[in-house]
Amino acid sequence: MVDLISQYENIKPAVDQAIQHVISNAQFINGPDVSAFQSELESYLGVKHVIPCANGTDALQIALMALGLKPGDEVITPSFTYIATTEVMALLGLKPVFVEVDADTFCIDPEKIRAAITDKTKAIVPVHLYGQAAEMDAIQAIAKEYGLFIVEDNAQAIGSDYHHADGRISKTGTIGDIGCTSFFPSKNLGCYGDGGAICTNKDDLAVKMRMIANHGQSKRYYHDVVGCNSRLDTIQAAVLRIKLKELDNYIDARRKAAEYYDDFFASFPQIKTPARDSKSKHVFHQYTLQLEGLDRNALSAFLAEKEIPSMIYYPVPAHRQKMFSAFGSENTNLPVTDWLTERVLSLPIHTELQQEQLEYICTSVKEFITSTN
Ligand SMILES: *Cc1c(COP(=O)(O)O)cnc(C)c1O
Asked: How far is the CA of 60 from the centre of ligand 1 (A)?
């Protein structure tokens, strides 16, 4: 699905040198690259505070810990997302309340949020799924009306822009109270292991989250709140400093590949290509098709025979996971989510896709369609 080896080859001298530098100085924890990366990411995103941490799941957990919620408080979130988004809620004793997504954009449907609000609702966690922003203006309006926090799950959309109705443009992850992202290797800004970051424009939340990520410590050996240990390794920060400079080029490469797919599949009624929301810049963490009347497993197997990977993100929506059975969430009525789960298929998309690879993938899909017609 991604080609991290070719991507590395293109930045090898800089990466090798940066990693060697960290090793030579032996500043593996909280070395100078960590604070440098932090401020570089703050400028890139146009956000006041970035708090690097160990992974995207920790970022979400720390964000929710900082909001001062009580066990049993409810958090509104899509079910059509990676499990990390909602798992951390249950871990903290919060109740995930699953809301439907939009069938075109795959992101939480703001129209459906209002009906899910109760007097226990404290926060909304929208996910910018596959690299395109959720409807943040509408979500912010609802959050304001009901006094709810917004924590954006920006793990798949770092670098994406959101165009507000009033003309402002924000980077995704900087719009709500807190934004969380992941530097898992295959993410759009990926490091060479695990990594993550939290961002916020709010000083008080930044102080709290920094403290939580560092054993609840206010000054050395004084621990004011229960926290955790979540750090970005210096080696990962060194790699990320190099890759952050490439991020916009990486996004362009992904968008070009997506356009190639779009053009090719436009004439196939059996394939619905990903819709673009004019308010958001799609950064194509995934290129996800909706198949209409095609046998998804057969197509995937056909492609696999030709050494073309394809993936289902995600085969089981969160509300149907056994993990949440205590909440009775499998009884939530989410027809769009269930329907999408049955028909999505993601094709390879990454920064190193060559024209001939795209042609090969597309003609292989076409071959399958013509052979089954
Ligand atoms: C990857 C991802 C996460 C978790 O990130 P990790 O770094 O793997 O912990 C959370 N939410 C979404 C939507 C993701 O894609």
From this structure: 9
**348 CA from centroid of ligand 1 (Å):** 18
| 144 Cα: distance to centroid of ligand 1 (angstroms) | 27
Q: By percentage, how much of the chain surpasses pLDDT 70? A: 100
Pocket flag, ligand 1, residue 184 (CB < 6 Å): yes
Instruction: With cut-offs at 50, 70 and 90, classify the pLDDT of residue 372.
Output: confident
Q: What percent of the chain has pLDDT over 90?
A: 98
Q: Is the CB of 172 under 6 A from ligand 1?
A: no
Residue 222: φ, ψ to 5°? -120, 115
Residue 305 has pLDDT above 90, yes or no: yes
Q: Ligand 1 center to residue 292 CA distance, Å?
A: 28
- Sorted by where each begins, the domain ranges of the chain are 4-241, 247-372
Indicate the pTM of the whole model.
0.98
CATH topology for the 4-241 domain: Aspartate Aminotransferase; domain 2 (3.40.640)
User: Quick one: pLDDT band at residue 224, thresholds 50, 70, 90?
Assistant: very high
Neighbouring residues of 114: CB distance < 8 A, sequence distance ≥ 6: 142
For the structural domain made of 247-372, what CATH number should be given?
A: 3.90.1150.10
What Cα–Cα distance (Å) separates residue 91 from each residue in 60, 108, 252, 321, 323? 11, 22, 37, 14, 10
**Which atom of ligand 1 lies nearest, measured to the CA of 195?**
7
> Would the CB of 153 count as within 6 Å of ligand 1?
yes
pLDDT tens readout for residues 29-78 = 999 999 999 999 999 999 999 999 999 999 999 999 999 999 999 999 99
For the Cβ of 55 lying below 6 angstroms from any atom of ligand 1, the answer is yes
* CB of 107 closer than 6 angstroms to any ligand 1 atom: no
Inter-helix orientation angle 84-91/56-66, to 10°: 40
By the 8 A CB rule, do 45 and 197 touch? no
